[in-house]
Hints:
Helix content: 10-25%
Strand content: 35-45%
Largest sheet: 6 strands, antiparallel
Shape: extended
Number of domains: 3
Order of helices and strands: HHEEEEEEEEEEEEEEEEEEHEEEH
Number of helices: 4
CATH superfamily of the largest domain: Uncharacterised protein PF16024, DUF4785
Number of strands: 21
Radius of gyration: 38 Å
Distance between the termini: 67 Å
Amino acid sequence: MSRWGLMGGGLLLVALAVWLMGRGDEVVAGPVEAVQPVALATPTAASSVSPAKGLRVAASGAEAERQALWAQRLARSQAALATYRETTRYPHSSRPAAEQPDQMHPNRPIVQQQPLRLPGGGDGAGLVLRSVQQRVFVQGDEDVTFTLAVVGADGQPRPLVITQALAHVEPAMPGTMQVALAAVADAAGHTQTLRLHPASQGFAGQEPMGIRVEVGLQSEGQAGYTYFDIVYSPLSPATWAGPVRDRLVAGSLRFELPVQVNQAGRYVATGRVDDAQGKPFALLTFNDMLPAGRQVIGLTLFGKLVRDTQPALPLRLRDVDAFLLHENRSPDRVLLPRLAGPVHASGSYPLSAFADTEWASEERSRYLAELTRDVEEAQRQLGHP
């Protein structure tokens, strides 16, 4: 064959390849012997796949990956929607007691146990300081006690001596007044008790304040240190002004606490509800602006919460605390006198008197709509109805 014949065969091969690429992997009609004289390398398995088919395989893989990602997004969106719907069945102001176990007994002492802290840093070898603080928030004529004891690594009590106990306003400034507190030991000398009565020990005034009690102590030759913080409100911005009553309002139980407001502002109140057997049932909150004068703080138990859990009736309101909120200040609250223990027992209402509808608000509707749109978009991308 002449040089021109070989060149013609080569051009024919190139043209055929270009045409095949344009047709994809369709079957080509006509004899293939015309290109057999041209020497070609033996094709491998990979090179036998046409470029168009490779592109289609890659596109198929990309689509599968996209579908998998949308399937994950659908699962997340459905879970988010279900979780939000479930957790917002009841309003923020009326929640099950099981959600807030740390707030159901506000008047219990604060018990702590930690290695004995040395004044210069570090821990006393094997010695553990146990302390009990009666309360953190102190109002008016209330006092607060602090109890301390030291035990060894074996858990047995060790002798304890209070070397110094000073109370002062926090944060302390140069020249801040310090009040010495006297410690009272038990008969064995293992437990020491301090008592602070702010109203009679130099902390009476008009504004709320933070007070720190710093304690130096010694046990078995080891000098230790600890401190306690309280928030003290000398004067109350409002006073409770009459007996509590309850009534059904729109299928929910409303506890109404009359109050004489001396200082207008935003008031926050919290009350605990037990069932007839004394089992903690719900945490109720109030958060609203109150003008000066005789007002009512309403703690509302949501009807559906009662219908869903069916507590033993009647219900009992207890341990109500309230304060005037001072935002962007420290301390951020001025306390009302605490209502410790039982406050009010509700009337007897049939279970059917409570509403069985979920909480509705503009905020909840908006979030449910947004979360629903996320679910629907994922379903649309996956071709689901």
